[in-house]
Write a structure and sequence with these properties.
The complex is a heterodimer of chains A (about 325) and B (about 270).
Chain A: E1 17-26, E2 33-43, E3 48-53, H1 59-67, E4 74-79, H2 88-91, E5 95-98, H3 110-119, H4 127-133, H5 149-161, E6 167-171, H6 179-194, E7 198-203, H7 206-212, E8 215-220, E9 223-228, H8 230-234, E10 239-244, E11 260-263, E12 266-271, H9 274-288, E13 296-298, H10 302-314
Parallel strand pairs in A: 3-7, 3-8, 5-6, 6-7
Antiparallel strand pairs in A: 1-2, 1-4, 8-9, 10-12, 10-13, 11-12
Chain B: H1 6-9, H2 11-35, H3 37-45, H4 62-94, H5 97-101, H6 108-136, H7 145-168, H8 176-179, H9 181-189, H10 198-204, H11 208-221, H12 231-259
Classes of the chains: A alpha/beta (about 325), B mainly alpha (about 270).
Chain lengths: ~325, ~270
């Protein structure tokens, strides 16, 4: 998601997905609601990117616009240089889409469902290959209604990937899956990158974004508020030291001033220089013979940044 | 932009791909019809029952014959076409199948055809079977088979459109039992000309089924049941009911097109 402000070029090296000042409103007049409020995105070809956000952040709305399922109220989208709505016929054979909720007829079997999808694609892989790749061979003749949630999601992914897409859009691919099924899906997504496929996925599982994505964008209230690699996003965010508040007052150390707060019997210190703060704190404790129980220290994580973003941005509304 | 998808960009390739999609989806819809006993009964058995009317009463009685033929065709249009397409659209929509399919290469028009095809094929098959059964039961050969076919085809399109329109304001597959009643009632009422006072007849002639009834009688038995109407005169006589049917079809298509929904109301 490096910024690359170029005109809508179709040349090699252009991002696989390029979004400029994207907006989407629902409703009219007083009840109108703007779900997407000026999103810019550049997704490099052959990478995995994750769109992170709380529920209602606008992730699905943004995805639906990129997928060509909705019309933006403003802004420009190019997928492989093409407009998702105007160039739908040329673009769809090159895209694979997974919606947030799977949509199947419960009374069709797995293999009947896959055959149906097969008939709709320009360049489908054989049904048998997909059954194997997604570990569904044993369930081929089971009706969809009898599948577990994980199996249904794998079947859905099989449909998404059947046409050997160049760009894959996955809206919460692992929501509702057990940990084992989730690992399976992660493996599949990583496999796509090895094949050179461009993947954009949404998730509200931070560890999923960290495990899979080359680059992340954090979305909040319809805007992208942070973007980059995990290291880039976490950079500049304070580390946290936490310990049970001792029976004696804390010293007036420079490192502890301003950034210390009390939280249910614990003292929490936020610091940009974890080593200096810890040294000061531990030296004081050692000298005065204070025992710091439940002491922990951690650098900023994606989670802490994510929560901080959510808190900060809530205030002005 | 040159892509490897050349088969999708040339016209013949595009039609072949379109046909493949429609047939693949229609096959799945037909398969689903056979998976549900209730659908199977109203989709296949119900429309065939009125044919039995042809074999009761006097052999070759054209009054009974015309009524039996109209009733059979109307059942074939109301159940395999109207009600079946309605419940298919509503349940596929609620299962998010339609939304999922629209993420793929399938076009909306192909989805509409694929959803309608199994029911329309059954209605066509029943209309052919009705010809065979009618002749077997001693009815004369139809005067104007082309008019008969046109009447059935236009009616099928009309009931498909009514099904999509009804689906737009039907919340669940179960509530289709209620929401389908207005269309079914108007359709059935149109065949009651004989049972009602003459002043109603003029109104009933302008209902879809009233027009269908008139066209069946004209195409099979000629004008006023006298079989000496020439082919050209037959088409001229068919003008008014055909116009009525086309007007209803246009209205139904207009209503369906402006109310079409592909996913459940959130």
């Amino acid at each position: 998601m490096t910024s690359r402000p170029s005109p809508s070029d179709l040349t090699a090296g252009a991002p696989a997905i390029r979004v400029r000042d994207l907006r989407r409103s629902f409703g009219h007049g007083r009840g109108a609601f703007e779900a997407v409020r000026g999103v810019d995105l550049d997704i490099e070809a052959g990478t995995i990117s994750a769109l992170l956000g709380t529920n209602g952040a606008g992730k699905t709305s943004t995805m639906e616009l990129i997928e060509g399922l909705g019309r933006p109220s403003a802004g420009e989208i190019r997928v492989l240089g093409l407009d998702p709505l105007a160039d739908r016929a040329a673009l769809r054979p090159r895209m694979g889409i997974l919606l947030q909720r799977s949509g199947f007829s419960g009374d069709l079997t797995v293999v009947e469902t896959l055959r149906m999808w097969h008939s709709t694609l320009s360049h489908p892989q054989p049904v048998a290959d997909l059954l194997g790749a997604l570990g569904l061979e044993d369930r081929a003749d089971t009706r969809v209604v009898g599948l577990s949630g994980g199996e249904q999601r794998r079947l859905d992914l099989a449909c998404t990937l059947m046409g050997l897409p160049e760009v894959v859009l996955l809206d919460e691919p692992t929501t509702g899956l057990d940990p084992e099924s989730r690992r399976d899906v992660w493996g599949l997504v990583r496999g796509l990158r090895e094949r050179g496929t461009t993947v954009l996925l949404t998730t509200h599982h931070l560890e999923e974004a960290e495990a899979l994505a080359d680059e992340l964008a954090i979305m909040h209230h319809g805007r992208i508020v942070r973007r980059g690699t995990v290291a880039q996003i976490v950079e500049g965010h304070p580390s946290t030291v936490r310990f049970a508040t001792p029976g004696v007052p804390l010293p007036e150390l420079r490192e502890l001033r301003d950034t210390t707060r009390q939280e249910r019997g614990s003292t929490v210190v936020e610091t940009d220089d974890l080593q200096a703060t810890l040294t000061a704190l531990l030296t004081w404790a050692d000298r005065t013979g204070v025992r710091l129980t439940d002491l922990s220290a951690r650098t900023a994580t994606l989670e802490s940044v994510f929560l901080a973003v959510a808190d900060q941005q809530r205030a002005p509304r | 932009m040159s892509t490897p998808t050349s088969t999708a960009t040339t016209a013949p390739g595009r039609y072949a791909a379109s046909r493949r999609r429609v047939l693949g989806l229609a096959r799945a819809n037909a398969l689903l019809m056979t998976r549900n006993r209730l659908t199977l009964v109203y989709g296949l058995v119900l429309p065939l029952l009125p044919l039995l009317l042809l074999f009761v009463g006097e052999r070759g009685d054209t009054t009974v014959g015309a009524t039996a033929v109209t009733t059979t065709l109307l059942m074939a249009l109301l159940f395999p076409v109207y009600y079946n397409v309605l419940s298919l659209v509503v349940s596929r929509r609620d299962e998010l199948v339609l939304k999922r399919l629209r993420t793929g290469e399938t076009r909306d028009s192909e989805l509409v055809v694929a959803l309608s095809l199994p029911g329309v094929v059954i209605a066509m098959a029943v209309s052919v079977l009705t010809l065979v059964a009618g002749v077997a039961a001693g009815l004369p050969l139809p005067d104007n088979i082309a008019l008969y076919a046109v009447a059935v085809l236009v009616s099928a399109v009309m009931f498909v459109a009514f099904a999509f329109w009804t689906a737009a304001w039907t919340r669940t597959a179960e509530s289709a039992q209620m929401t389908s009643l207005p269309v079914i009632t108007v359709a059935v009422a149109g065949t009651l000309t004989a049972a009602l006072p003459a002043r109603f007849a003029e109104v009933l002639d302008r209902t879809p089924a009233g027009a269908l009834d008139a066209l069946v009688r004209l195409s099979w038995f000629g004008e006023d049941g006298s079989r000496d109407v020439g082919l050209l005169d037959g088409w001229v006589a068919a003008g008014p009911p055909l116009l009525v049917l086309l007007a209803w079809t246009a209205a139904a298509v207009w209503l369906a097109a402006r109310s079409l929904r592909w996913e459940p109301r959130s």
